[in-house]
TrEMBL record, chain A:
GO-annotated biological processes: autophagy
Polar residues biased stretches: 481-494
Keywords per UniProt: Autophagy, Cytoplasm, Guanine-nucleotide releasing factor
Taxon lineage: Eukaryota, Metazoa, Chordata, Craniata, Vertebrata
Name used for this protein in its record: SMCR8 protein
Encoding gene per record: Smcr8
Family: Belongs to the SMCR8 family.
Domain UDENN FLCN/SMCR8-type: 48-906
Location of region: Disordered: 477-512, 678-698
Record localization: Cytoplasm
GO cellular component: cytoplasm; guanyl-nucleotide exchange factor complex
A Pfam family recorded for this sequence: Folliculin
Record bears the keyword Cytoplasm: yes
From TrEMBL, chain B:
SMART domains registered for this protein in UniProt: WD40
Gene3D superfamilies: YVTN repeat-like/Quinoprotein amine dehydrogenase
UniProt key word GTP-binding: no
SUPFAM superfamilies named among the record's database cross-references: WD40 repeat-like
Protein name stated in the entry: WD repeat-containing protein 41
Quaternary structure note: Component of the C9orf72-SMCR8 complex, at least composed of C9orf72, SMCR8 and WDR41. The complex is formed of two protomers, each individually consisting of one molecule each of C9orf72, SMCR8 and WDR41. The protomers homodimerize via an interaction between C9orf72 (via C-terminus) and SMCR8 (via N-terminus). Within each protomer SMCR8 (via DENN domain) acts as a bridging protein between WDR41 (via C-terminus and N-terminus) and C9orf72 (via C-terminus). The C9orf72-SMCR8 complex associates with the ULK1/ATG1 kinase complex.
Described function: Non-catalytic component of the C9orf72-SMCR8 complex, a complex that has guanine nucleotide exchange factor (GEF) activity and regulates autophagy. The C9orf72-SMCR8 complex promotes the exchange of GDP to GTP, converting inactive GDP-bound RAB8A and RAB39B into their active GTP-bound form, thereby promoting autophagosome maturation. As part of the C9orf72-SMCR8 complex, stimulates RAB8A and RAB11A GTPase activity in vitro, however WDR42 is shown not be an essential complex component for this function.
Length: 933, 458
């Protein structure tokens, strides 16, 4: 619902209006810091210099037996996307790490060539020089003409943002598996088809040869065999053998364990295809009767159409033959399906990683609000394609992720199983920490710190476990030399423990090392620093590496300076500490920016204490947040949303270069933002979820229209009130386009009555009936001058008590009076919001507030039912009204909005899942008034 | 409002249409019906609603379908198909046998000259009778005798098992339009202008059971009798097409009182004859009668009249209660009266005692205060005449229900469950008290929560 790019604007808005009404701060999981250089028109999502391509793309490569690794196609298929990026080189890289145990050929001890149905391998690799990180999915396709019958392919999702790849690994893997499965299914069919033909050919060849031999025999009465005859006989024999071999191959390919397909992993990429497979699952021979691929249907019925060819005895195993294209390999239908799927993937993962994460978090959160989410959310997109992992993340994450130090890794697949080997490191850590702590002033700290390692390790374990359990080998071809010490996993295990600002970065390293067994770290190019080279490469502008170099040298000391700024500040905000922070900052930071020397206002300080928080991308929803707050009191007090704003103002004057050289914590913390943000290879942050892409566009447009509406019409408030209180609003007008536009604009205010019905009708030309008001809460109605039009108006006037009527032509509104305050916040005509989608989100947030109020109201037992048996109904009513007015702070007509929403909630909750439930029409006998411009 | 819509005129609030019909305005504090459910099931005009028990009712109409509904939830329980033509009469028939469980039956008569008995619990057809020579136009159940009567061109008496006990000879081609049960095993049947009293008696032969014979013919009405209602054991009332209302003694079938055209000339001697002439008979026909112990409420043309039996005169009236003929009225226990009309609206009236003003009231100002239109001046005059000795009443419009797009044929009052109305627009609307429904839903909600184990009361 709220996505990163818009949160920026949103928080600003909040800031401005904060005096007017005390808004609760943004939920912490949404606390995305602002970009400090926004004031200069810099695009915080600007591409980093390191990468040579402008946005994420998908590359399909092949390891050709003729020319070696070669790129086949990119998605999107646009030369601009890959830019100067060397696809050939990258193909070489990604194809060089194929660890599929694909072996086809004559296994020792077997007479015939054997097909191996190998699992795809899924690999993550990075190339810092190119600034590219990739999720690489290797798969093998069968080709009768290929060497060993196999053609290795790979699909790679290439992004400049390593985090994105790592965090979305599970999703990427799932999505690419679908694509791969689609390709392979098609390939198996094509391969079987090819074999059939080949067999026919062979059969035919055999007959021809046989006839020839017979003829020779007859012709030859000399009693001995000519060399010709022997040759023919040999040829015949080899054809016979070949037939047997091919039959065997055919049997093998048909005996592909389809059972496997139906198991958990594979989700059919297309419903029709699913059917398809269900059909073919039991009997592979009967090819699916899919209309989309007539050529494929019923192999046998098509046999007559194939005229066998004579096969030359000496098949040319030479390089001049043309290899089949991917399309030929897996038949057009499946190929296009796969392309669709890949486009889908591209759309899904397009955009900044924090956008993706926020989206996922929002959806996970929304999913949990099953009681209220139907009201204003587009539930349809919640239903489809449940983000499997995300849910797990939300639950499993509870313990560890309280503060920002538990990094983005927490998003990677997570099954919390602690491995024995890490236990030991857990034990040693607290001691180490304590020892460090002694240096710092407050003994209290240690205990707060000691609790952290546990968590960090938790997540570490989980992280590793995840990578192990995923069954695929994750390989990080880090091009950096990750520091010699890093390879020692035992020592490195303590790394993530340190609650230092760079923890995140260090963990990147540690993750690789600790999990050595399952994750390969191949360092290919030397680099001195501990910071992964890729970071250097990607975010050169924002990161100064030196402190880390220092830290690397004196590992033990690293904790102290890093800890104190964070934790000391957390303990209390006494100004005395501020100076200390500065000192700390100064000592651990090599250079200082001039502005850091001047005494900082408290607000300016915040970033320092906060930087752990700031540096993280939004975390998945944390269930245990409450409990953890006790341990880290300082962290929860800081509304993350505010912080960046302050930062922003502070650094408004600072240029990029300044901040680069200024090594204070703030810039450090900001660097993450900028880097994380900038790694987004897509300049235009676009919908993360493809399913709601249309919805997104709709929202944008609706938001824009709504903005225009509230600016244009002074009586927007009563109109919106009508919608929110369940009174049908009819937009009357002659011009269809205008009416529809208004309806679209207003539709964002319409509460849904149920999951499946969106009570908006954009255009109606016939007279309305009562039933229509039951179904639709917002109707666009045509005004005509014809007699039929008079009927339409008669109906309107007859049912006027159920309706509010917005006359788009004469710009009048007839509806009940509204004197509440909620709508005023919802639709302030002086709002500073410019963008449609931002306004949409603003609306959503206020509607969500309303929902929560309605939820409270609905589910408070004593508000609706007497406490004791004898309590009179009046006192319940009184209590109810008091609650609405005093507790929920609703004024006048706002009460009715909440009551209406509560009614919808009740209906929704009561309703049995199976039946739709008859729609009610609730109404009030209230006078209407006429509003004019 | 309409004018505003059409012309975008200047005075949209000038809602007061030029019609003389009293309007209540948009604010209806006393109108409890703030929620409605539209019940769809019929394909043609729905003409009849009949209550089966406390929470079920049946509807029937021109499509020949009988639907059973739950009055609380609006759920359609059964759709009974059996008739091929429109349904002309429907009557509930509950067995009152103490020893067996209560069995709810309904009897329906149709233009296809059949009568079907349905079981409401199972939704099955119990039995079908198709030996009629003409369409059965009315059905009456005599619970006391455990028989039911069908009235068409003749009167038949049936027992529960659908054995024809006895029948009269052919009466008229027009047939019996209404039947009402009278004391002493008598029934009154309205046949055209005549009112015929029949008596049922045990025949001397035990096995035969019953005999029916004509006792008396009453020919006091000038025109066809449209409505017939029994007030109590001593009185019944008939109303005719030309606006005659006659009160009869139920025991000796003598005329106790009558009001002929009382809605205009008798009470308004000063009214010019032209007006009377201009009134089409349709506007004075007594469409429907209902009564409580003290009063008879008559739907006469577009108006509603309250006739006090003791005082033997009209004590209150609303001459243009609707825009069009009133088809059905009902007295509620709480001094309220509901009427429905061809104009598609349902109106709720309250019979109020007028504040007795010691001095003579200002002729027009008084009524203007109540929002009465000019047309009610006459009523005003009526009132003025009456005010000398008796308490005065008037019908105050407290609410109207607008939902149907065509004539509302009938309605059924279900107490606090609400009100069901049926209409020529094929719909049945269940009007409900929104507040009550809301709290009921809350109750259900918390019950469900408790069921799911999510409820923790502290």
């Amino acid at each position: 619902m709220i996505s990163a790019p818009d949160v920026v604007a949103f928080t600003r808005e909040e800031e401005l209006e904060d005096d007017l009404y005390r808004e609760p701060p943004l939920p912490e999981e949404y606390s995305v810091p602002l970009f400090p250089f926004a004031g200069h028109g810099a695009n915080p999502w600007a591409k980093v210099a390191g990468s040579k391509f402008t946005r994420d793309f998908i590359l399909i490569s092949e390891f050709s037996e003729q020319v070696g690794p070669q790129p086949l196609l990119t998605i999107p298929d646009d030369a601009k996307v890959s830019g100067t990026f060397d696809l050939n080189y990258f193909s070489l890289r990604i194809m060089s790490v194929d660890y599929q145990a694909s072996f086809v050929g004559h296994p020792p001890g077997s007479a015939y060539p054997k097909l191996n149905f190998v699992e795809d391998s899924k690999v993550v690799l990075g190339d810092s020089k190119e600034g590219a990180f990739a999720y690489v999915h290797h798969l093998t396709l069968y080709d009768l003409e290929a060497r060993g019958f196999v053609r290795p392919f790979c699909m790679a999702y290439i992004s400049a943002d390593e985090h994105k790849i790592m965090q979305q690994f599970q999703e990427l893997s799932a999505e690419f598996s679908k694509a791969s499965e689609c390709l392979k299914t098609g390939n198996r069919k094509a391969f079987a088809n090819e074999l059939e033909k080949k067999l026919k050919d062979l059969d035919y060849t055999r007959t021809v040869l046989h006839n020839e031999t017979e003829a020779q025999k007859k012709a030859n009465d000399k009693g001995y065999y000519t060399t010709q005859a022997i040759e023919k006989a040999n040829e015949l024999a080899s054809v016979e053998k070949s037939i047997i071999e091919h039959q065997d191959l055919l049997r093998q390919i048909r005996s592909y364990p389809y059972r496997k397909l139906k198991e958990s992993e594979f989700h059919p990429y297309e419903p029709e295809c699913a059917l398809d497979q269900a059909d073919t699952g039991c009997d592979q021979d009967s090819a699916p009767s899919d209309p989309a691929e007539p050529g494929e249907t019923h192999l046998y019925s098509h046999i007559p159409s194939y005229t066998p060819k004579l096969i030359k005895a000496k098949s040319a195993k030479c390089f001049d033959k043309k290899l089949k294209t991917l399309e030929e390999l897996c038949d057009v239908y499946f190929f296009t399906q796969t392309l669709d799927q890949l486009h889908h993937i591209e759309r899904t993962f397009r955009g900044d990683v924090c956008y993706l994460l926020t989206e996922q978090i929002s959806r996970a959160l929304l999913k949990q609000q099953s009681v209220t989410n139907f009201l204003f959310e587009d539930v349809s997109f919640l239903d489809e394609k449940p983000p499997e992992k995300q849910y797990r993340g939300c639950q499993g994450l509870g313990q560890d992720a309280m503060d920002g130090k538990c990094l983005e890794e927490s998003l990677t697949p997570k099954v919390v199983i602690s491995l024995g080997s890490y236990k030991s490191s857990v034990e040693c850590v607290p001691i180490k920490m304590e020892q460090e702590m002694e240096d710092s002033e407050e003994p209290k700290m240690s205990e707060s710190v000691t609790s952290e390692p546990q968590e960090n390790l938790d997540y570490l374990d989980a992280d590793i476990k995840g990578s192990i359990s995923s069954g695929e080998s994750i390989e990080v071809l880090g091009t950096e030399k990750s520091g010699s010490g890093l390879t020692k996993s035992e020592s490195q295990a303590s790394l993530p423990v340190m609650p230092s600002p760079q923890a995140g970065r260090s963990k990147v390293g540690s993750r690789r090392t600790v999990s050595e067994d399952s994750i390969e770290v191949l360092s290919t190019c030397p680099s001195e620093s501990l910071i992964p080279e890729d970071f250097k490469a990607s975010y050169p502008s924002a990161i100064n590496e030196e402190p880390y170099v220092d830290n690397d040298d004196e590992r033990g000391l690293r904790f102290a300076p890093r800890l104190s700024p964070g934790i000391v500040d957390e303990r209390d905000d006494v100004s005395k500490q501020e100076s200390l922070v500065q000192v700390d900052a100064a000592c651990c930071i090599g250079k200082e920016s001039p502005n850091f020397l001047e005494p900082l206002p408290e607000l300016g300080q915040k970033p320092c204490e906060e930087d752990g928080v700031v540096r993280i991308p939004p975390q998945p929803y944390r269930a245990a947040e409450q409990g953890l707050r006790g341990t880290f009191p300082a962290h929860d007090g800081v509304p993350g949303g505010l912080l960046p704003y302050e930062l922003d103002s502070r650094y408004l004057s600072g240029s990029r270069e300044v901040s680069k050289s200024s090594l204070d914590e703030c810039s450090d913390s900001m660097s993450y933002i900028s880097s994380a943000a900038s790694t987004c290879s897509d300049r235009t942050p676009s919908p993360a979820h493809p399913a709601c892409q249309a919805g997104e566009r709709h929202r944008k447009r609706a938001g824009q229209n709504a903005l225009r509406f509230i600016r244009q019409y002074p009586f927007a408030h009563p109109a919106i009130y009508s919608l929110l209180s369940g009174r049908t609003l009819v937009v009357l007008g002659e011009d269809e386009a205008m009416v529809k536009k208004l309806v679209t604009a207003l539709s964002i205010f319409v509460p849904n009555c149920g999951v499946y019905t969106k009570p908006v009708k954009h255009w109606v030309t016939s007279p309305l009936h009562l039933v229509d008001f039951q179904k639709w809460k917002l109707i666009g109605l045509q005004r005509t001058v014809s007699p039929a039009g008079v009927n339409v108006l008669h109906a309107l006037s007859r049912y006027s008590r159920y309706l509010s009527i917005l006359d788009a032509d004469s710009k009048t509104l007839r509806c009940p009076l509204y004197k509440g305050t909620v709508v005023a916040r919802l639709a302030d005509h002086r709002t500073q919001i410019k963008r449609g989608s931002t306004y949409y989100m603003h609306v959503q947030s206020i509607l969500t507030q309303l929902c929560s109020k309605a939820f409270l109201f609905t589910f408070c037992h004593h508000l609706h039912l007497p406490i004791s048996e004898r309590e009179p109904e009046e006192s319940v009513v009184n209590r109810r009204m008091n609650f609405l007015k005093l507790q929920l702070g609703l004024a006048n007509e706002d009460v009715k909005i909440v009551q209406y929403l509560a009614e919808l909630l009740k209906l929704h909750y009561i309703q049995e899942p199976g039946q739709g439930g008859s729609p009610l029409l609730r109404f009030d006998y209230v006078p209407s008034f006429l509003y004019k411009i | 409002m309409l004018r505003w819509l059409i012309g975008g005129g200047r005075e949209p609030q000038g809602l007061a249409e030029k019609s003389s019909v009293q309007t209540v305005g948009e604010e209806q504090i006393q109108n409890p019906y703030t929620e409605l459910l539209v019940l769809k099931g019929h394909q043609d005009i729905v003409r009849f609603l009949v209550r089966i028990d406390d929470c079920r009712f049946a509807s029937a109409g021109d499509d020949g379908i009988v639907c059973l509904w739950n009055a609380q939830t609006g759920e359609k329980l059964f759709e009974l198909h059996g008739h091929t033509h429109k349904i002309t009469a429907i009557a509930p028939f509950s067995s009152s046998d103490a020893f067996e469980e209560k069995k709810h039956l309904i009897i329906t008569a149709s233009a296809d000259r059949t009568v079907i008995v349905w079981d409401c619990t199972s939704g099955r057809q119990v039995q079908k009778v198709s030996c009629f020579h003409s369409t059965v136009k009315c059905l009456t159940v005599l619970q006391r005798l455990d028989v039911w009567l069908s009235g068409g061109s003749d009167l038949c008496v049936w027992n529960r098992k659908l054995d024809l006990l006895c029948k009269t000879s052919h009466l008229t081609d027009a047939g019996i339009s209404a039947l009402v049960e009278l004391p002493k095993n008598c029934v009154a049947a309205a046949v055209g202008k005549e009112l015929i009293i029949f008596r049922l008696s045990d025949s001397n032969n035990e096995s035969e059971g019953w005999n029916v014979f004509e006792v008396k013919r009453l020919v006091d009405h000038q025109d066809n009798i449209l409505s017939l209602v029994s007030v109590n054991d001593l009185t019944f009332v008939t109303g005719s097409y030309v606006g005659e209302l006659i009160v009869w003694d139920a025991l000796d079938w003598t005329k106790q009182a009558s009001e002929c055209n009382f809605w205009d000339s008798s009470v308004h001697p000063d009214v010019q004859p032209e007006i009377k002439l201009s009134q089409s008979p349709n506007e004075t026909s007594v469409q429907h009668l209902t009564s409580d112990e003290k009063c008879v409420f008559a739907a006469v043309g577009k108006g509603i009249y309250v006739y006090n039996l003791q005082m033997k005169r009209v004590i209150a009236c609303q001459r243009t209660a609707h825009d069009s003929s009133v088809l059905h009225i009902e007295k509620l226990p709480n001094r309220q009266l509901i009427s429905c009309s061809e104009d598609g609206s349902v109106r709720i009236w309250e019979l109020r005692e007028k504040q007795q003003l010691p001095a003579e009231p200002v002729p027009t100002g008084f009524f203007n205060m109540w929002g009465f239109g000019r047309a009610n001046k006459q009523a005003n005059q009526t009132a003025k005449k009456m005010q000398e000795n008796t308490p005065m009443y008037f019908l105050e419009l407290v609410g109207d229900l607008i939902g149907h797009s065509s004539a509302v044929q009938m309605f059924l009052y279900f107490g606090e469950l609400g009100l069901a109305t049926c209409s020529a627009d094929h719909l049945i609307i269940l009007w409900k008290d929104g507040e009550r429904e809301s709290s009921l839903r809350s109750l259900t909600l918390f019950q469900k929560l408790a069921q799911n184990g999510h409820l923790q009361l502290k």
